[in-house]
Amino acid sequence: MSAILVKEYGGVEKLEEGPLPFSVDAPIAAGYALVEIKVAGLNFIDVYYRTGLYKKPQLPYVTCDEGSGVILKLGESSSSTSSLLRVGDRVAFFRGSSGAAATHALVKLEDLYPIPSEMSFQDAAAVLLQGATAHYLTRSSYAVKRGDVVLVQAAAGGTGLLISQICHTLGAIVIGTCSSEDKAKIARSVGKADHVVNYTSNENWAAEVKSIAAPYGGVAVVYDGVGKSTFLQGLTTLKPRGHMITFGNASGPVDPISPLLLTQHGSLTLQRPTLKDYSAAGGEIEERVRELFGWIASGDIVLTSSNAVFPLSDVRSAFAALEGRQTTGKVVLTTTPTSTL
After folding, report:
1. 91 lies in some domain
2. Residues 159 and 242 in one domain
3. Looking at the structure, do residues 245 and 311 belong to the same domain, yes or no?
4. By the number of CB atoms within 10 A of the CB, which of 135, 192, 292, 340 ranks highest?
5. CB 103 within 8 A of CB 37
6. How confident is the model at residue 330 (pLDDT cuts 50, 70, 90)?
């Protein structure tokens, strides 16, 4: 029984294997469940926490907030407060836990979601956080509609693939950017991108995007999870009154800008939203997950088989691969053989 701990902020070398921060034999508090972890999902927000860009309430902490597994115990009186969950249920979560990069986690019942019978532990851990993020970005931050031209930066990444597929389902014209031809193939085949531009080999990629979008009226919205290296050029691709939504810092945080820059490019709107604020209303996150799982069940969203899978003990390599942007799809950590997932 072990966990991957961060005892001080820094690089991947700060990830250490250690004992669970609680006893699995101790009574479980009301409103919580003890979950045996099968898969933990690794996200860029886990990098931001480990480096100290974002702060956890205290150190040390168990890394990764997203995971899937099986309920082993319910807290005292919990069975009467949550009639939908039982010991033995397959569940997934992306918040409200003691940390998912571990053999076991304590998770708030309100933050557990039953995994559909046809979905694997690996897929559940790979899709929940990024899927809920893609949902609020495309349905709430900017409500994508049929005929919109949408630019998705890093379109072969885990979130990028989901955003692209949702936008395609909603009837948008999707332009994706990628850093290699292999990633471009995935953006087209899995992400259903209508056009793909390589922003590594083509230094004038923004002009190419504008040229592609021109016959359709221009780019309505940019979804940018890359950050520093793509932000300013991304602004130039937008049509007047377009929307720049920056939601990640894969290449580093965006530098401060003057609001006048938005005026100069055509009265643009700039957002830096978070899932926390788009899941605050009662039932809001449940509705997002319900629609997300519905799209998956109908085949509108196809979960990629190109996930990068690492054993929990090789967590440093998993973080390094994610931070080096060497992967497509989702990076996950497993506590069991992949054949059982």
Report:
1. yes
2. yes
3. no
4. 135
5. yes
6. confident
Same domain, 39 and 103: yes
Do 151 and 20 belong together in one domain? no
Least-confidence region, from 29-33, 81-85, 124-128: 81-85
pLDDT of 80 above 70: no
Range of the domain at 14: 2-115+307-340
DSSP 290-301: HHHHHHHHHTSS
pLDDT for position 207: 97
CA atoms within 13 A on the CB side of 292: 30
| 299, part of any domain | no
- Asked if residue 288 is part of any domain, the answer here is no
Q: Does the predicted model carry a pTM greater than 0.85?
A: yes
What is the three-state SS of the chain? CEEEEECCCCCHHHEEEEECCCCCCCCCCCCEEEEEEEEEEECHHHHHHHHCCCCCCCCCEECCCEEEEEEEEECCCHHHHCCCCCCCCEEEECCCECCCCECEEEEEHHHCEECCCCCCHHHHHHHHHHHHHHHHHHHHHCCCCCCCEEEECCCCEHHHHHHHHHHHHCCCEEEEEECCHHHHHHHHHCCCCCEEEECCCCCCHHHHHHHHHHHHCCEEEEEECCCCCCHHHHHHHEEEEEEEEECCCCCCCCCCCCCHHHHHCCCCEEECCCHHHHCCCCCHHHHHHHHHHHHHHHCCCCCCCCCEEEEHHHHHHHHHHHHCCCCCECEEEECCCHHHC
Q: Is residue 60 reached through a cis peptide bond, with omega within 30 degrees of 0 on the bond before it?
A: yes
pLDDT tens profile 236-266: 999 999 999 999 988 999 999 999 999 999 9
